[in-house]
């Protein structure tokens, strides 16, 4: 894939997913309380690490192919770190570069 420049306003999260497949450290719980975490199905929670369960760098709740079409299996109850990531923000651009997607 090319590292051509793209307009962040055109980034479509459901066509990207790079932020959810960048690092096992990113989907860490920060301000969630126990009730928030309890709403996430246990299969996707890594309790000892205080984060979402990952398969390598990829969040286990992410389905689909990064850069083509993705979806979050727990979108309605996803952690705050996932809610605050915005298309074109610094974290988004880091993850897109990591996957060779245009930034």
TrEMBL record:
This is Zinc/iron-chelating domain-containing protein. Pfam families: CxxCxxCC.
């Amino acid at each position: 894939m090319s590292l051509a420049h793209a307009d962040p306003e055109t980034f479509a999260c459901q066509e990207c997913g790079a932020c959810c497949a960048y690092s096992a450290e990113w989907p860490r719980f920060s301000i969630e309380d126990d009730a928030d975490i309890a709403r996430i199905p246990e299969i996707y929670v890594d309790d000892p690490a205080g984060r979402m369960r990952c398969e390598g760098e990829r969040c286990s709740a992410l389905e689909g192919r990064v850069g083509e079409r993705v979806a979050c299996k727990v979108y309605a109850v996803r952690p705050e770190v996932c809610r605050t990531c915005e298309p074109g923000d610094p974290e988004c651009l880091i993850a897109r570069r990591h996957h060779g997607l245009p930034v």
